From TrEMBL:
This is YVTN family beta-propeller protein. PANTHER family: DIHYDRO-HEME D1 DEHYDROGENASE, PROTEIN NIRF. It comes from Archangium gephyra. InterPro entries: Haem_d1_sf, Host-pathogen_enzymatic-act, WD40/YVTN_repeat-like_dom_sf, YVTN_b-propeller_repeat.
Length: 641
């Protein structure tokens, strides 16, 4: 096996495909159980449960063959390609070259199955949510979707499995549930008045919503999206923390003098702790088994014993403390001063302020990788990196200043309350929302400047999230990602293992796909325009366009498509600054209609896809639409002889 790593890891891959459930009354009926597909090879065991047209989960199991122990914390990338008929398996040189090509991100060299993809999500000032694919361009724009939220957003939270995104709508008194496969608002759940901050329980089963307008907290079931109950907490903005392995929720209100402890499973109140008014932030340390409370009015941090539910320490701090967060180990707590120039770092081992750092400019947020704390400054365009390993050393911790963009965040319309820095899947890179610059900055640790910039197409990104669809460890030694193999025959699987950086090339012989589909090798859907693509549209006028979208003859699943399955995008290249997501209407089986209204003359691109049927945007043919200026109305005296 070419490229076999010297430390001899036994690699086992299991691919289990399950039909994705659709929401709503027009969901397609369930598909019959899949037929198993198995493959064997020396040192590799592979099995597929392959279901036509359905997405599945690829599972890589890494074991040390000498001990049988799982290999934990590994970093790996993987791609899968159907091998052309008669072509031999790649040798080690070809394997390395192919992986290098994939790492280059060339559109012409995309793998049949890419197990490393991720998307960037931004929460924008214009009540929209941008979905950016940093690895793929549609006519030179990376803007994949634009979701209209229908109102100003308060906060957002991504379910741990990445299946749903929740956004509060303060003016509507609701939480919008965004489907992260189709990127549409699936439903709006009514909660209390002026919902703001969100907190997901660690197990991802419940979502806790701060209803700032009525002093309550609503608890939502993230499976059914139903409100399970409403808790009385107190007037003013709330803060949340989860402790004891996620079993206990701690709630506070800025105007209440009490903290409320709630059982997460039953939502029953467990007790209250009197701390005084002015609670600004909460954070729980599993290491210290204690809750840390920032009281802004009293300029102190309280330490509450989690089991006894009583205040055991009071730590005086500088005036104006704000955010409080623990780094990944749970030992060091960071206290930020959004109206000042400092960051205090508390040591839970001694319950004292171990470090007081200055030189910041109105710091309001902190995000962590395994090596650094990233502090956003709102008074200038810097992000301050504090080395976590240096916290245990004597002297001042190491701080590096990185300039992200040109404009300070306070020049934006609004800062927003959600994190503006997100960690990328590789773990040593982050994405920073340049709110006032209307851009996203990609930074990798060890560099003195951002290594890349993504435009946000004229919108201010108030917050940023990474929707990770790449391989990640889901249990010890098991790494999983979504996959969809479509063809029979030998497949080359290219795996890149890190530490040491070693390519591994495998051969899988896939069988079980219906032969007519495997031999056809064509797109799963047929797209036919019901309009003349060369026809000129008129700027500013709404035009209806029809098209036919049907399953290809070789596809086993011939169910008619429904509008909820479709994704439609109209944008103007090259920048994609203007983008519209028309909502399709069903005219008859297989025939759909959309309304488009391009605002200015020029060339536009129309894309149609149905991800649930294996046709993502860009897979099917696109249409170039020309748009002419609206005719100028002339005064009657100008046309009289």
């Amino acid at each position: 096996m070419p490229g076999r790593p010297g430390w001899a890891v036994l690699l086992v891959l299991l691919l289990a495909c399950q039909p994705r459930k659709e929401e709503g009354p027009r969901a397609p009926p369930p598909v019959a159980a899949p037929a198993p597909v198995t493959v064997t090879k020396a040192e590799v065991s592979v099995s597929f449960e392959l279901q036509e047209g359905a997405e599945g989960t690829a599972r890589f199991v890494l074991k040390d063959p000498r001990t049988g122990a799982p290999v934990r914390g590994a970093r790996l990338l993987a791609w899968m390609d159907a091998r052309p008929e008669g072509q031999p398996a790649p040798d080690e040189a070809a394997c390395r070259a192919r992986i290098k090509t994939y790492l280059g991100g060339l559109l012409a060299a995309r793998a049949d199955v890419d197990l490393n993809s991720f998307l960037l999500l931004t929460l924008n000032h214009d009540h929209t949510l941008s979905v950016i694919d940093p690895q793929l361009s549609f006519q030179r724009t990376k803007l994949r979707n634009l979701v209209s939220l229908g109102g100003a957003a308060g906060d957002w939270a991504l379910r741990p499995d990445g299946g749903a995104l929740y956004v509060t709508q303060p003016t509507h008194g609701s939480v919008s549930v965004v489907d992260t496969r189709r990127f549409v608002v699936q439903r709006n759940v009514r909660v209390g008045r002026a919902p703001g901050r969100l907190a997901l329980a660690p197990d991802g089963r419940t979502l806790w919503v701060d209803n700032e307008g009525d002093g309550t907290v609503s608890v939502l079931d993230t499976t059914t999206q139903a409100v399970l109950g409403t808790l009385e907490v107190g007037e003013g903005p709330k803060a949340f923390a989860f402790g004891e392995g996620g079993r206990t929720a701690w709630l506070s209100s800025s105007r209440s003098e009490e903290l409320v402890a709630v059982d997460v499973a039953s939502r029953e109140e467990l007790g209250r702790v009197t701390v005084g008014p002015g609670t600004r932030a909460l954070a729980y340390s599993e290491v210290a088994r204690a809750l840390y409370v920032v009281r802004e009015q009293a300029n102190e941090v309280l330490v509450v014993d989690g089991s006894r539910r009583e205040v055991v320490h009071r730590l005086p701090v500088a005036p104006g403390p704000g955010a409080l967060r623990f780094e990944p180990s749970g030992r060091w707590a960071f206290v930020l001063y959004p109206r000042g120039d400092r960051v205090d770092i508390l040591d839970t081992a001694s319950n004292r302020v171990a470090h007081s750092l200055t030189g910041f400019s109105a710091p309001d947020q902190v995000t962590f990788t395994s090596s650094f704390a990233y502090v956003r400054n709102t008074g200038d365009a810097r992000v301050s990196l504090i080395e976590l390993a240096s916290l245990e050393k004597s002297g001042t911790p190491s701080v590096v200043q990185i300039t992200m963009g040109q404009k300070k965040p306070t020049l934006a319309r609004e800062l927003g309350r959600s994190p503006a820095i997100a960690v990328l899947p590789e773990g040593n890179s982050v994405l920073v929302a340049g709110t006032a610059d209307r851009a996203l900055y990609l930074y990798s640790e060890g560099m003195m400047a951002p290594r890349g910039t993504h435009l946000n197409y004229g919108r201010e990104p108030r917050a940023v999230l990474v929707l990770d669809r790449s391989l990640r460890e889901v249990e010890p030694g098991v790494y999983a990602a979504q996959a969809r193999p479509r063809k029979n025959g030998p497949h080359d699987v290219h795996v890149l293992l890190d530490s040491p950086r070693t390519p591994v090339c495998l051969t899988w012989t896939v069988s079980g796909v219906p032969e007519d589909a495997a031999s056809a090798g064509t797109a799963p859907l047929v797209l036919e325009p019901g309009f003349e693509p060369s026809r000129l549209l008129t700027a500013g006028q709404r035009t209806s366009l029809r098209f036919r979208l049907t399953p290809a003859a070789h596809v086993k699943d011939q169910r008619p498509l429904v509008p909820e399955e479709l994704q439609v995008m109209l944008f103007r290249p090259p920048s994609g600054h203007w983008l519209e997501r028309p909502v399709p209407r069903r005219v008859e089986d297989g025939v759909f209609e959309i309304d488009v209204s391009p605002p200015e003359p020029g060339q536009y691109v129309l894309l149609v896809g149905a991800e649930s049927r294996g046709a993502t945007l860009g897979t099917l043919r696109d249409f170039k639409l020309g748009v002419q200026a609206a005719p100028t109305l002339r005064h009657v005296s100008e046309v009289q002889p």
